[in-house]
Amino acid sequence: MNLKYILHSGKNSNLKFYMASYAMHLVPRWLYVHVAHGVARVLRQGQDMDYVHWRVAYYNKLSSGRSLPDDTECLQRMKRRGQSAYFHDLYRTSRWFEGHLKCVLLPGDITYVPQVPSIVKSRPIEGDNANSVVMKLNRTRHFIFLHDKLRFEDKADRVIFRGGVFQPHRRKFMQMYFGHPLVDAAEANKHASSNPPEWRKPRITIYDHLKFKFIMTIEGNDVASNLKWVMSSNSIAVMPRPTFETWFMEGTLKPNYHYIEIKPDFSDLEERILYYLNHPDEAKAIITHAHEYVAQFQNSRRETLVEWMVLAKYFRETGQTYDNFELRTKFIRFACPAWRAVLLSNRGQSPRSGRPPSILLRRHYIAFYIRGSGFQTLISG
After folding, report:
1. Could you give the CA distance from residue 11 to residue 144 in angstroms, rounded to a whole number?
2. Which residue(s) pair with 106 in the sheet?
């Protein structure tokens, strides 16, 4: 057992993630819905809404007229199945919406475009991918950002690769560069594989990767999960042009501006590394641009607002409405003093105000309808 890796891997804590996720479920949905309007107002304060709308349109390309199958589950009936991290991440956003709304969640590494509008972590970059609505899923694994204290010029003049080697293109890379003097390449699978045993080495921490100037970010089943933390470091990501994208918007990355691009067959890797070793100013410019790109994902209020608006657009473009009906019924039934008094005493007026409960309930109803309409405006406009 690699104790150093377990205690100091540099990755996000799964324990912390799941504890926070289950804690969210202790609060009833109607209470989240009740305060959503006020939270949305806070999230919008000081935001560049043109940029926010651009992000929303990038993740959610749906247009009106799309529909969901009749047997689609509603939010309040969605259960944790299989890869529960995806369910918890969606719930972080969906809890602010009414439970009768419906969506299709496809967990895992999605490399195709589904037939119906679906919430996914990843999608193909090319082609018509409108049915793939990207949200920030499996965030505890994919969204790691670092503060790298080691300067680029103080790092080793080599490129490192560690990762699972199950896919044909990763096997090809290992066949080409295992033992190469410029490349520290090794297999670090969690499980046994049929690859040559000499490829295997113990897993190393993120901080051990940062000792190298260049880090390979090769796509696995979909995206390269290490790309985010590499671009936030003082090392440079080296990869072919990406073919899949996530919340990180890999499709907007510029080759040789945000990362070093190599050919899909890896044949020019040595040439590209030597070029940037001989042109350190250009290499450091790529690091600066990568940091600027990463910074747009580090405004937590804005990220939450974008997530809300992406999901709201999903409901809207699939013909669903969120008018706080659930809030009005549940809140009035369980929290309105006048209604509770009627249930308990069957008297014809509220003991507090002396007014007929029907008038009080009507006022609550109207107030919550206005609140619901305002919430729609805040996360739609």
Report:
1. 7
2. 120
For the chain (381 residues), the mean pLDDT of every run of 10, in chain order, is: 59 83 90 88 90 96 89 87 85 92 94 96 96 94 90 97 92 95 90 84 91 96 94 97 97 98 97 97 98 96 95 93 56 50 45 50 52 60 62
Range 123-129, long-range pairs (CB < 8 A, 24+ positions): 123/244, 123/245, 124/243, 124/244, 125/242, 125/243, 125/244, 125/245, 125/250, 125/251, 126/243, 129/61
Q: What is the pLDDT of residues 53-77, one digit of tens each?
A: 999 999 999 998 888 999 999 998 8
Residue 260: count other Cβ atoms within 10 Å of its Cβ.
22
CA–CA dist 259, 55 (Å, integer): 21
Q: How many CB atoms lie within 10 A of CB 106?
A: 19
Tokens 């039934």 appear where? 333
What's the token pair of residue 66? Answer: 């799309």
Determine the 3-state secondary structure of 354 from DSSP.
coil
Contact between 306 and 59 under an 8 Å Cβ cutoff? The reply is yes
* Residue given tokens 């969690």 in the structure block: 190
Task: Please report, as a single letter, which amino acid is at residue 333.
Answer: R
